[in-house]
Amino acid sequence: MELLVSNSTNICEDFQCKEKVGDILQQMDHSVDSCEDFYQFACGRSTRKTMLSAKMKLLRKTLDNPPNNLQAEHFRRFVKSCVQFQYGFEYGYQEKIEQILSTNIRSNNLTVLLASLMARQTTPFFEVRFDLISTSEGFGLQLLPPSDFYNTAILQNWSIESEMKEYCMSISSITHAESNLKSAYEKYKSCVEKATIREMKDFLFITRNESKRIEHSNKGDDFPLNMKRIPDIDIQFALTNQRYTKTDIASLNKKYSSIDWGVFFNVMFHNKFKQSMPIYLYMQNSYFDDVMAELKNRLTNDEDEVLHKVKQFYQFQFYQSLVVSKPNPENFCIKQAQDLMPEITESIFAAEFHQTLAIDRVKTVFQLLKDKFVRLLTDGIIGMENHTKRYLKARLRNLKLSFFGSDWNNKKDPLPLPGNDYISYLLVSLDARRCLIDQPINPNLTFSQYEYPAVIPNSETVFVSNNFLYRILKDDQNPAYITELYLRFHLSRAIAGFLDEVTGRIDTSFWTEFKDSLRSNLEISEGSRNWNGQQITYNEDPGRWKKLVNASASELLADNLALQIAFDDFSSYAGNDRLPWIANDLTTKQQFFILIAQDYCQPLTLTEMAQKLYESPNIPNVFRVTTMMSNSKDFEATFKCARGSGMNPEEKTEIKTFKPQESFFLISK
């Protein structure tokens, strides 16, 4: 892509450049005041274009003429196995589903029932996934409590509770502009409570017939409710902080004898399970010991009742399932490969666009940014002790980059390629989706949390995904300085996140003032925001906001600091203060904020927003970007937003984290 340079301006003449301009302008909604709702202004008409057809051609080419690397071999083996599964689908699987759905199902083997459930991503008692355990342990099986955490992270949890929530989401979907988020959420929550209490309160261990109720401890009588009280954030904390117990089949059988664990995993993995595979048990003391003890107790007292409940659970899962034949098994399997093993398939796309050159480019920018952060620590931080500065600078200099599969022969690679068991697990995930093909497709997105560069916890490593590499490699669709902007912004976010991780473990107030001010602001302030035409009141429940703020403070910090770092060089790449190829009436600074916001563009319905904002421990991108912009000193000055407007609350105070000329933190009181 070329920019014709004149004395006064840069003009886009190249076809690809004009196409990019069209995409940017198409996403913007000029009917909205940027100072009232910047996200809507920048992203209001967002329609994410996909490269599906081009990617399909490239993946087919890889099948026919595979390159000599392990990642391509993983892809080929999965597609080949998937096609074999698919051809036998119509002849054996429909009968199996009919048996499962039959009200006369008479299996009295709890282990087989649970294994069949888990092959479809859920049991009433626990979840299983196959993923990277740690840099030292490599890949293995994880045994965890059932949780909605998987809806936004790794596994799609198709449980009876999820079915209830999906039903309630549909009846609470309010699309009229005059409706607000709070009312949608209240309607949704009321439905969930009524449906869940009716269907779940006496589910699993509580008998329906009060006259036949078995006497147990008080703890046991409330067992289903106790299960539901396990907070998602605890599971996430256990995963992030590697709070697991390494175990094996023999130990599980001895400790939790109600289930034959060898049979369980063998049925689940279609007789492909290796007994030697390591198993990692998470939250053993806080969850599994109590759950398995109660299960054993109930089986001893009334085994038929427990089995009946699990069968009900099983049947409820599939009563709406339809067996749909696929006319082209290979196309189906290639698409499944893209969903189930994205890092491996994205590496194929990235390699086609000169992956080595891109990696070198990212490394160069990464080193420049680290040097910049070192200078910022040296000159810009106020109130930090010198020994803390020296410590942080030393840790920064040791911060490394990692690219998926780029160094898989090196045992020190923090994200090594998985072994053959990975393919077996993906086939299990695929098998679970045959009769649920119209359901959300996210049963196992390995490393999906690394869509953008991110710090791997406890590793001193920033991981750059193949998905991100592929996006920045398409230089023919972006001017060079826009690609550079994305690189600097997202790598800066990762480095800032690393600083936050480090300072969280030492006795320092590096970000304390910022976090405390943000938390105080969101708990006591009154006001609303407008997203996608919906007026959202955000001070109704301070308790929920506190949870959101605690989970998102470091992300917001990283965003603001990354804005500062990235913008320092944006103008020099842009050439001057006006870029007519985007819009004649937008300055360089305005275009900078528009491009950053558009990198996060994602359409959300009102109900989706309600659920994410009130239920998820992770702040949604749409809210994070809006908050980031409203708290940026540069944003306020650039768009000249009047006090009291949506993007410029009436009272602001500067957080003295950096020198005044460097400060990027403006927080409402």
From TrEMBL:
GO terms for biological process: protein processing. This is Peptidase M13 N-terminal domain-containing protein. PANTHER family: GH14155P-RELATED, ZINC METALLOPROTEASE FAMILY M13 NEPRILYSIN-RELATED. Its main location: membrane. GO terms for cellular component: plasma membrane. InterPro entries: MetalloPept_cat_dom_sf, Peptidase_M13, Peptidase_M13_C, Peptidase_M13_N. It is a single-pass type II membrane protein. SUPFAM superfamilies: Metalloproteases ('zincins'), catalytic domain. It is found in: Cell membrane. Its cofactor is Zn(2+). It holds the Pfam family Peptidase_M13. GO terms for molecular function: metal ion binding; metalloendopeptidase activity. Residues 35-400 form the Peptidase M13 N-terminal domain. Keywords: Hydrolase, Metal-binding, Metalloprotease, Protease, Zinc. Residues 553-654 form the Peptidase M13 C-terminal domain. Belongs to the peptidase M13 family.
